[in-house]
Amino acid sequence: MTAELYDTIGRTYGDTRHADPRVAAAILRALGDARTVLNVGAARVVQGRAEELPFADGSFDAVMAVLSDHHWADRRRGLAELRRVARDRVVLFNANPAEADRFWLSTEYLPEFLGLIPPRFREPGAWQDSLRDVLGTAELRAVPVPHDCADGFYGAYWRRPEAYLDPEVRGSTSVFSQVSSGAVDRAIDALGADLRDGRWQERHRELLSMDELHLGYYVIVAEQNSHTGGRT
After folding, report:
1. Residue 141: inside a domain, yes or no?
2. How many Å apart are CA 130 and CA 137, to the nearest integer?
3. pLDDT, tens digit, for every residue of 22-39?
4. Which residues contact 27 (CB under 8 A, 6 or more apart)?
5. What residue numbers bound the domain in which 121 lies?
6. Is 232 part of any domain?
7. Quick one: which of 4, 100, 126, 227 is 20 to 30 A from 199 by CA?
8. 223 secondary structure, DSSP code
């Protein structure tokens, strides 16, 4: 199922999903002195599954995953696999589901996306606890989204709302493939109307002068020697 989803949404990645230097810098800082890095979910691949990585224990200095664990069949098992093949640290970049209502697109136009979030992860701290339960002590570093973010993930266009009217932008963002086409059509029609009439601009006047916005995205760093029962 995941492969089929990537076959669909990945067709326009080359046009809309480029590494943003500011987000990339936050991830690189988290990787630290790692010389060998496995990126689970990257474009240049060794065929495999996050839940069954085809590598021996401790094969890489660091293992990372960027906005991909929501596609895994078994997230907990996938995180455990990341930890297994990492010698020094696991680095993730992802959004805290409990902060999903920070984004106007979800709350005002596409509430169906909020409905996809398991209730347990809507509770403050639950997502962090789920990470630490598998990865051990994990440091969370907030990463604000730049207003001109080059990587077209879901929250990237918070100050450029007209971008969401572009089918190519939506086609390379998995959120729009996870809710019904009817819900997406209603959301886009309503957003388009609000942009034409100036209602969106009036409602979000303060956003238009902001350079960055916190939408709940974090870099998570889990050092291997911090996990109880880790390797000795």
Report:
1. yes
2. 11
3. 999 999 999 999 999 999
4. 64, 66, 91, 93, 219
5. 2-226
6. no
7. 100
8. E
Backbone φ/ψ region at 142: left (φ over 0), alpha (ψ -120 to 50), beta: beta
How far is the CA of 196 from the CAs of 23, 49, 185, 189, 201, in angstroms?
31, 44, 16, 11, 9
SS3 125: coil
First to last CA, the chain: 38
DSSP string, 175-189: HHHHS-HHHHHHHHH
State the CATH number of the domain containing residue 75. Answer: 3.40.50.150
- Whether residue 231 is contained in a domain is answered as no
One-letter amino acid for residue 95 of the chain: A
48-65, pLDDT tens digit by residue?
888 999 999 999 999 999
**E strands, 115-180, where?**
138-142, 145-146
CB 175 within 8 A of CB 113: yes
Dump pLDDT digits (tens) for 67-124: 988 889 899 999 999 999 999 999 999 999 999 999 999 999 999 999 999 999 999 9
